[in-house]
């Protein structure tokens, strides 16, 4: 979960120029109490912030304001730094306005611009195109397309409103006399991001393929589908278009059950049929899918058509080989094969792309089986809670996370690697996740386990009519988790909660509701579920899935709480930029709402190695001694102009005008006048009382927060004193830093010695207690000892077979040499005795004539001495080795 670092930076608060992006002008000050005379606006989604890099477009009333957040931040910080250094000289002009002599401060209007729009009502939604060159501006009933200029044109030093080119979309279709526009979505597969899909409240889907060179593309939709007619359709060649002349509408069950609340497309990088599947949520609680919904000219990603071709061919082969396959399944497989065959027969048109980008291939929507797909639904919710309330069933928004694009089977056996373009799409679920949001703030997480595929109605045929006499089973969604984001006291009947995409992970999103902003992450269970789905072993899978369902669910945290009495929040917009940081941007009708987070951390898949996980792990951060608190804004009721003067002016020009020119009398007209005045005043007084009470509670909380800050400051002071040694002062004076450092070093050394001795004891104890396997070095050493023993004592095999001729060992040769030596000494003694005896008894006689050369005797003696030395060295070495072995 993201860790909040700060709220509302100074460069977006008053009196900075960045605050002008969100504050209302004096001409557009809202008077909600004045709605008493007019028609109360119908509730709907409020998505008034669109992003283009570091630039944001904010809708305030009937205006669109542009601002570069990076430039506003840099200019404000530079101006603040120079003013604190004394380089800015503030001067007051004759028109009571303030200026600066600094050249940079004089151009503070740069980075902020007002865009003039041709709308006649308040703007409710801003939708940026995928190529960020078109901006859809939506009111409750109308749609305008703004051709965004280059950023260099908006940086001009001109305070006048900028007037870009605007096109009215459907000047006879999207008008106030017809149904309100619920959603406007840029089709993920549109050519250069120019295909727009609008969904009205009366369940009519229109596909617009826009071209600035052709005005007709803004007047008429290329494809219009009435979902109420399509739901009751039986044949492919029926008319499912809209009726142009039907403006008066009577009551019908379809008008209530098929009232659209929201719609969405999965992202372009999703796999399978997801990029061309439109998910529609009805206000009554039903969910429908329309697949495939394509414009006349569409540009798929590089992997979409090959992956669909492989799956369709495999499905057709499986259906033909299955004798029990139903007629509906065979017809569906054949229709998908016809659709893919039409694509294969086309020669795509290649569009030039920018340097470094992939080539764009443009296809034409297949004519077979048909342009209008079958309406799949309503989906049944499996494992749905049984105790749902009415406000929990009433849906307000839908958010679809498409299945991941799996190209492993597609590229099997290929040497080239396919670039997916987004590393985050490599990890994710192979199932589509559908998130539903109700009026009460309840979030329902559902899984499309069956998988939505392209479907069409059957063609008109008598034979196939008999085959389709029985209705097919309804599709279903598996309800994985349900949780609330609002408390019962925070639920408002007219509120409209909204989903917003997170920029750090495709498995996380934000929920904007009347009580604030909540962050939801599906990562705790998404990766584990995918590992189970992709696992090869089925043993224990049911047990693991049960643990997954009962274990930790989605993580949710409220990152911002809206104060009571404030206006509704715009849908949160997540921004992650190196210059700005990671934050979420929203706004009320008067002030911005910003929540800054720490640097986002990449989601780590469980399949990654521990080295990769350690590589992306965060460094330990120092302890934070303060808690960020949101900036408090007083209630708008304190700054709102009173309605009483306008009410009096209305009476002076109405039928009650004579009452102001005569004395006060007790009459029914006077009673009605006082009753109306009491309503106006009591309504304003009620809002003012609530605002004052909220302000009083905030003042009380400020006192308690100040006490907490004082306590924390004292704790920090005590920590500093303990570190510096100033808290250990006695009669002799404080202890010096050197003595403190020496004492701490001595204590650390003693502690280290104690730990080392304990470690040695534990190692010896473990060596005696454990019987672990020998290592490779220990095995080699044992073999060496065994071979040495065999060489000295002889092996058992040598003792059993004595007749086997073997080379004499060193100890045997040493014994033979000693025996020869003793024999020679004995012979020498005998010869000496014989010589002595002969000298005593008889006269000397000549020595036996043994003529041995002197050199030969020296060589023999040298050989004998060398052999003795060698054998002595061998014996000494053997003795020393045996002594070491015995000691060990």
From TrEMBL:
InterPro entries: NUP88/NUP82 (IPR037700), WD40_repeat_dom_sf (IPR036322)
This protein's UniProt keywords: Coiled coil, mRNA transport, Nuclear pore complex, Nucleus, Protein transport, Translocation, Transport
One GO MF term: structural constituent of nuclear pore
Domain of life: Eukaryota
Coiled coil: 745-772
SUPFAM superfamilies per the UniProt record, alphabetical: WD40 repeat-like
Gene Ontology terms describing biological process: mRNA export from nucleus; protein import into nucleus; ribosomal large subunit export from nucleus; ribosomal small subunit export from nucleus
Subcellular location, record wording: Nucleus, Nuclear pore complex
GO cellular component, one term: nuclear pore
Positions of region (Disordered): 1-25, 721-742
PANTHER family: NUCLEAR PORE COMPLEX PROTEIN NUP88, NUCLEOPORIN NUP84-RELATED
Entry protein name: Nucleoporin NUP82
Organism annotation: Parathielavia hyrcaniae
Species classification: Eukaryota, Fungi, Dikarya, Ascomycota, Pezizomycotina
